[in-house]
Amino acid sequence: MKVLIINGSPRSKGNCSRLVDEILSVFNPLGIESEVVSIGNKDIRGCMACSYCATHDGCVFKDIVNETSLKLKEADGLILLSPVYYASPNGSLIAFLDRLFYSANFDLSMKVGAAFAVARRAGTTCSFDVLNKYFTISGMPLVSGDYWNNGFGSKQGEIEQDKEGLRNAIMVAKRMAFLMKAIEEGKEKYPELLEEDPHVWTNFFH
After folding, report:
1. pTM of the shown model
2. pLDDT (tens digit, 9 = 90+) per residue, 130-152?
3. b or e along 49-80 (b: 16 or more beta carbons within 10 Å of the residue's beta carbon)?
4. Which H/E stretch holds residue 37?
5. Which spans in the chain are helix H?
6. Which residues contact 91 (CB under 8 A, 6 or more apart)?
7. Residue 3 in 3-state DSSP?
8. Are strands 33-38 and 150-152 parallel, antiparallel or unpaired?
């Protein structure tokens, strides 16, 4: 089993990274392979809606997005972490995810997704909602903890005081491991349930 972890924070040892530590403390003993990709300090362009990816393999911009796409294709799970600046995920992560998901030329359904938002005080639930929509539009089951996947802290290390947030990261990781294993078994036992009906597009303008 493989999990790809995307850390949107520009801080290499920030509060988002502390949540990653808790997640890895669950995955590593279980033998779940994980890779952390930090994109918060990368120069990432947003999607131009050029439709290059509709007829080519990957995005027109040859950068970390295409590199990560290859890793996502092989992953069983995806975890997103973002700091909150103005009641939404940070701009670098949004630009990255728009292009990553839009240009993916492979099936994302039944890959397991989880998202975390970290803030000083507020804006986490708004950001959490935005991140989860990348999963639900792609047919990816969501992993929940015992609360919304929030972390609180501003300066480096302040999240250590958020004991509930740290524990929740552990619970999410455990449930993610369980769900990935259950899906793997379910694909063999109930393949007919994964057969998709023809897609139908609704457009109210003709």
Report:
1. 0.95
2. 999 999 999 999 999 999 999 99
3. eeeebeeeebbebeebbbebbeebeebbbbbb
4. strand 33-38
5. 15-30, 64-74, 91-103, 124-136, 163-189
6. none
7. strand
8. unpaired
Q: Among all chains, which residue has been given the structure tokens 């103005």?
A: 86
d(C-alpha 29, C-alpha 40), whole Å? 28
What pLDDT is stored for residue 205 in this prediction? Answer: 76
Give the chain's count of helices (H) and strands (E): 5, 5
Q: Is residue 20's pLDDT more than 90?
A: yes
Phi, psi of 37, rounded to the nearest 5 degrees:
-115, 115
3-state secondary structure of 107: coil
What digits encode the pLDDT tens for the residues 102-130?
Answer: 999 999 999 999 999 999 999 999 999 99
Q: Which two tokens stand for residue 165?
A: 């947030």
pLDDT of 60 above 70: yes
- Distance separating the N- and C-terminal Cα atoms of the chain: 45
Reply yes or no on whether the pLDDT at 206 is more than 80: no
CA-based torsion, 87, 111, 99, 66: positive or negative: positive
**Statement: residue 159 has pLDDT above 70:** yes
What is the Cα–Cα distance from 102 to 124, expressed in whole angstroms?
24
Q: Determine the Cα–Cα distance for residues 23 and 34; give it in Å rounded to an integer.
A: 10
